[in-house]
Amino acid sequence: MKKIVLVFIAAVIIVPLLYVFFAHPFQNKPAQKSVPEDLRPLLSAADKGDNNSQYMIGKAYFYGEQGLEKDFDKGLYYMKKAAEGGSTDARYELALAYKYGKGTPMDYNAALDNFKKAADGGNSASMLEIAKIYDEAKQPAAREWFEKAANAGESEAIKKMADITCSVPKPAQDCVDWLKKAADINSTDHIKQLAKIYEDGVIVPQSKQDALTLYTKAAALGDVGSMAYVGYSYTTGSLGPRDNKLAYEWTLKAAQGGNVESMYNLAVMLYDGKIVVQDKDTALQWFAKAAQNGNNQTAYRAGLIYADKQNFKDAVTMLTQAANAKIPGAAGSLAKIMLTQKNYPDALSWANKGANAGDANAMNVLGYLYTNGLGVDQDLQQGLNWYGQAMKVQPQNGTIMFNIATGYALTGEYDKSIYWLKQAAEHGSKSAMYKLSELYHEGRGVKKDDKLAAQWAASAAAAQDDSL
Fold first, then answer.
1. C-alpha angle with apex 160: 195 to 148, nearest 5 degrees?
2. Does residue 63 share a domain with residue 186?
3. Distance CA 61, CA 64 (A)
4. What is the pLDDT of residue 25?
5. Would 384 be classed as within a structural domain?
6. Do 175 and 162 touch, CB atoms closer than 8 A?
7. What does the alpha-carbon distance between residue 292 and residue 302 come to, in Å, rounded to a whole number?
8. Which residues of 395-420 are buried (b: 16+ CB within 10 A; e: fewer)?
9. For the whole model, what pTM was predicted?
10. Running DSSP on this structure, what letter comes out for residue 310?
11. What is the pLDDT of residue 33?
């Protein structure tokens, strides 16, 4: 008991001020309103000694209920009477009055004494208050009282017991038992903790089905992280059979709830069209929203889609975010857009940044800038050097091969240019195919061959665009 007094000594020091504040907030306090007519029989019964009436009137004065103005002095008077008459609820309210200084100076010893008397009478709220007092004082008796309160049905105490039993180095069965009780009262944090135990198979045998059931319960209670995890589970089959319908539904709920990873996953679902009907426009909206919420990888994805749609303003916004976050490929893609927009200074700047990070697209842009003298003095050898560096990173890239062919043509090395044109065409470069068709048709650098010219023209017509 002495330790409790020491812990709360500060409370005793400030008693006068708090008492004045709580019990007498105004020196010239206005007269109390008269007691409502329908409450007068209750007040009369309280004055005649009826224990329950004393408690009800005391509580009404304490909290300003049933038409009475809040009056701590009167509340304390009636609550003392009710407590002395054996009301455990009144004893609990009286203890609170001492704890917080309602109508009386704060007195933690008196509060603790009254809480214990109420607890002895079965008042579970008092058990919890005693546990809190001992817990604040770091007394070992706290656990005993938390357990009493928990066994009496106090939700806060049940959660606390789950925390206590699961926080030891090697949690045992009692941890699971208390987590189950916390789960029964819908404590989402404890539901997820229990789910993880089943998922990992610690303490209890592994049961992914039980884990999924618990995660789903937490999700249904509004836990966004659980929504995301359930959606992921149904997408990948990590906790049970895959289910495209449930995967989409839970991922959508998580995304709508603000889970950024789910925004990205939902966008992928919609863009790929493998789990739900393909909807690229809605997918782009979710990619962009995830990016706006800080997902830089998604910003890169959104930037590429905007670029494909020729929406260069939004593409630049997204790719700049990704490039500043050093997402691989973003700087090169941004440099490419700047090049197409004839913003050569920025194209050069981003291309240099990307090239230093090993980005083949950035190296390709640098090669193009130097071979064509855009934003820099023309330097064919420097341009070919950058193309060569890009080829080391992406040795099967037909677009880079075509640019090498163009570079050799500018240097007058036509044999090398024809070689790289053929390599580029065989690796899918639409531009190279058209160029070869033209050369074979005219017989420039190669033997004239209309049949080959037609073949390359047909191939080019069917190929995808590969412009820089």
1. 120
2. no
3. 5
4. 39
5. no
6. yes
7. 11
8. eebbbbbbbbbbbbbeeebbebbbeb
9. 0.79
10. T
11. 59
